């Protein structure tokens, strides 16, 4: 068994070629900064951000849809707090609230179901964003609403799945630091398949010991020059993942193409409600028109999310764009790369 001290020594001793490692998960970006792990990396190892922050990859037209539901259709929007300040084409949900919209911050989809049950005169829409980690909770909420016959509850879905993103990002990095909580649900089959196709990576946990171990394994295996996959988070991630969570998702949602902020449409990388739950699909219920969002042209979130630039390369980073006055989603979200660089490493 490798101790954290041994992992740090292996990490520091790396003398192989330059290596880019994509932190797929925004929580990894924040934790690696917060725990000072960047200072342990040899200079030729570069960490780049990836598309694993659900709020960050949600496209601007989704915010526009939520604003339209709130202001034009009078719906009550229930959402996680991060989404409230993400800029839309013309305004954020916080701005809409200033114009009289009902925006409720909740901590779980079930809270939105409870709100709908307690407010039968309001049309309640829960903003369902997230990856395989959080989507099962949204599915449970819909099933609970169906079981209770709640006609005033629906989801505005922007749920996404990671395998398509790995395919889209595989040429942008030398290897992936895979998100542990996603693979606790999906298992390790996708990573093993990618390794057989020449795409390397390690699944990592979130403590300092787990992160330095995963990074040490990554650089050690990369130095051998062969594609690899190692599960460095076995206490949580099992090869089979969580069959019960996947069964719940498969019963409630179906794959669809999805637009990722700055990346574009990735085939079959999204989830929509199955036809059996059409009554709980806000787009169908309110007959929402197709919207075309307009990104702020100054924002380089799209490139940050693909590891093509660092937040500091954005001309408005830390000037026009700060956590208090965000221009893009990556500065708003608690998992966003720009907020991580602003909070912990403006000189990184
Ligand atoms: Fe977008 Fe702000 Fe990040 Fe620039 S610093 S990429 S404007 S979120």
The gist of it:
The chain has 348 residues and is of the alpha/beta class. The protein has helices at 4-12, 26-34, 54-57, 60-71, 93-98, 109-118, 135-148, 162-169, 180-186, 189-196, 208-222, 243-252, 282-285, 301-304, 329-332, 337-344, and strands at residues 19-25, 45-52, 76-79, 102-105, 124-130, 153-160, 175-179, 200-204, 229-231, 253-260, 264-273. The strands form 2 sheets. It has a 6-stranded mixed sheet with strand order 4-3-5-6-11-10, with helices on both faces. It has a 5-stranded parallel sheet with strand order 2-1-7-8-9, with helices on both faces.
Order of helices and strands: HEHEHHEHEHEHEHEHHEHEHEEHHHH
Q: N-to-C terminal Cα separation, in Å?
A: 32 Å
* Estimated helix fraction: 25-40%
Radius of gyration: 20 Å
Structural class: alpha/beta
Shape call: globular
The hetero molecules present are:
iron/sulfur cluster
- SS element count, helices: 16
Compute the number of strand runs: 11
Low-pLDDT segments: none
Summed over residues and divided by their number, the pLDDT gives a mean of: 94
Largest sheet: 6 strands, mixed
Largest beta sheet: what is the strand line-up?
4-3-5-6-11-10
Query: What percent of residues are in strands?
Result: 15-25%
Could you please describe the fold and organization of this structure?
The chain has 348 residues and is an alpha/beta fold. It contains 16 helices and eleven strands. It has helices at 4-12, 26-34, 54-57, 60-71, 93-98, 109-118, 135-148, 162-169, 180-186, 189-196, 208-222, 243-252, 282-285, 301-304, 329-332, 337-344; strands at 19-25, 45-52, 76-79, 102-105, 124-130, 153-160, 175-179, 200-204, 229-231, 253-260, 264-273. A six-stranded mixed β-sheet has the order 4-3-5-6-11-10, sandwiched between helices. α11 links the parallel β8 (200-204) and β9 (229-231). α6 (109-118) packs parallel to α7 and α7 (135-148) packs across α12. The chain starts with a helix and ends with a helix. Bound molecules: iron/sulfur cluster (SF4). The site of iron/sulfur cluster has 15 residues, from α14 and α15.
């Amino acid at each position: 068994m490798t101790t954290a001290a041994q992992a740090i020594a292996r990490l520091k001793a790396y003398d192989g070629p330059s290596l880019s490692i994509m932190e797929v998960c925004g929580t990894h970006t924040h934790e690696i900064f917060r725990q000072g792990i960047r200072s342990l990396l040899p200079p030729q190892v570069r960490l780049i951000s990836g598309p694993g922050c659900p709020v960050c990859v949600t496209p601007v037209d989704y915010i526009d849809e939520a604003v339209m539901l709130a202001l034009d259709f009078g719906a009550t929007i229930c959402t996680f707090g991060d989404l409230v300040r993400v800029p839309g084409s013309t305004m954020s949900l916080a701005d809409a609230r200033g114009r009289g919209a009902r925006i409720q911050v909740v901590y779980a989809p079930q809270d939105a179901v409870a709100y709908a049950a307690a407010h039968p005169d309001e049309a309640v829409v829960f903003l369902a964003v997230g990856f395989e980690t959080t989507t099962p909770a949204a599915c449970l909420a819909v099933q609970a609403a169906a079981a209770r016959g709640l006609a005033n509850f629906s989801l505005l879905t922007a749920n996404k799945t990671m395998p398509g993103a790995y395919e889209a990002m595989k040429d942008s990095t030398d290897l992936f630091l895979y998100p542990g909580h996603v693979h606790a649900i999906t298992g390790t089959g996708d990573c093993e398949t990618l390794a057989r196709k020449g795409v390397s990576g390690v699944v990592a946990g979130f403590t300092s010991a787990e992160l330095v171990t995963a990074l040490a394994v990554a650089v050690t295996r990369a130095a051998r020059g062969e594609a690899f996959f190692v599960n460095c988070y076995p206490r949580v991630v099992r090869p089979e993942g969580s069959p019960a969570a996947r069964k719940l998702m498969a019963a409630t949602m179906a794959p669809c193409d999805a637009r990722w902020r700055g990346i574009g449409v990735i085939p079959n990388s999204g989830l929509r409600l199955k036809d059996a739950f059409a009554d709980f699909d806000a787009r169908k219920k309110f007959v929402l028109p197709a919207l075309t969002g307009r990104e702020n042209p100054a924002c380089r979130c799209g490139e940050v999310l693909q590891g093509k630039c660092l937040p500091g390369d954005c001309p408005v980073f830390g000037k026009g764009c700060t956590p208090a006055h965000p221009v893009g989603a990556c500065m708003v979200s608690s998992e966003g790369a720009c907020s991580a660089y602003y909070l912990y490493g403006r000189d990184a």
